[in-house]
Amino acid sequence: MDERLIAVIGATGATGKHLPPRLAARGLNIRYLTRDAGAARATIGPDAEIVEASLDDRASLERAFADAHTLYLNSGHSPALEAQQTNAIEAAKAAGIERIVKLSGNIDSPAPIPEAHKALEGKIRASGLRHTFLRPNFFMSNLYYVAAGLTQSDSFTSAIPRDVKISMTDPRDVADLAAVVIAEDSGHDGEGYYQTGKALSLDEVASIFSDVLGRAIRYEQVDVETWEEMVTGRGLPPWLIEHQVKMIGFAANGAYAYETNATEDIVGHPKRTLEEFIRDHADAFAKTG
């Protein structure tokens, strides 16, 4: 076992839940930080070291970081993202952590969450700690929300132009890349890895849904104002609506259409396809009524 202690924040979410088995397979010395150890145990595993700490409580983070060498930093989207992760960065510095691997995103977008990631990357650089940034593009798991209508009908709706492509990334590929970078203590310092899958239009996504689910699925494009009314009616908070509207505007210019080979070059296997993702999660899109 590699004896260097690695503190991991964010191991229970859509991407993070895929990370513990990959780290365990590498025999790494891991300490998981979570707000609720009992609730996290089912996801992280019965034998893992789990300690309770809060991103809102810097003192709890400093205690949990004791003797750690590396921090993997990931947390959910919220208006508090920058403040919370700033706490973790400052606590890591104070506790003597040497290296941060941060799950970030496409920092070129003007939306609030990418802007927060960009600011946090700057704070990590300014800290003087060794660092690597992982910048996956649009997660395939976002389709749970974008294509939520498929549980009730044979269509899904967005304001993204139908001729625009987006390179979607499987969260399992993100976890694979994170595990490699966390485990390899050299060769990644100062890097910012943009990670993508294949670029597809939402019409092409609908065609793939059709093939995999065995139903005729269509994509319905609406204007941004109509879409904003729709999601407001679903009860989304204003900050999240603002974030998504700006992301749509960024995507509409083709800014998410780029493709990279980070998965192949660093992890060593082909990037997972959308067909694989939908097939493996078909129950999430099955009709319920």
Structural description of this entry:
There is one protein chain. The chain contains twelve helices and eleven strands. The protein is an alpha/beta fold. The protein is globular and about 55 Å long. It folds into two domains: 158 residues, Rossmann fold (3-Layer(aba) Sandwich), CATH 3.40.50; 114 residues, Rossmann fold (3-Layer(aba) Sandwich), CATH 3.40.50.720.
What is the CATH-assigned architecture of the largest domain?
3-Layer(aba) Sandwich
- Classify the helix fraction into a percent range: 40-55%
Q: What is the CATH top level name of the largest domain?
A: Alpha Beta
Give me the number of helical elements.
12
Mean pLDDT over the full residue set: 95
Total strands: 11
Radius of gyration: 19 Å
CATH topology of the largest domain: Rossmann fold
Give the N-terminus to C-terminus distance in angstroms: 50 Å
Walk across the major sheet and give the strand order: 3-2-1-4-5-6-9
Give, in order, the helices and strands: EHEHEHEHEHEHEEHEEHEHHHH
Instruction: Report on the biggest sheet.
Output: 7 strands, parallel
**Percent of residues in β-strands:** 15-25%
Q: What is the structural class?
A: alpha/beta
Specify the CATH homologous superfamily of the largest domain. NAD(P)-binding Rossmann-like Domain
Shape: globular
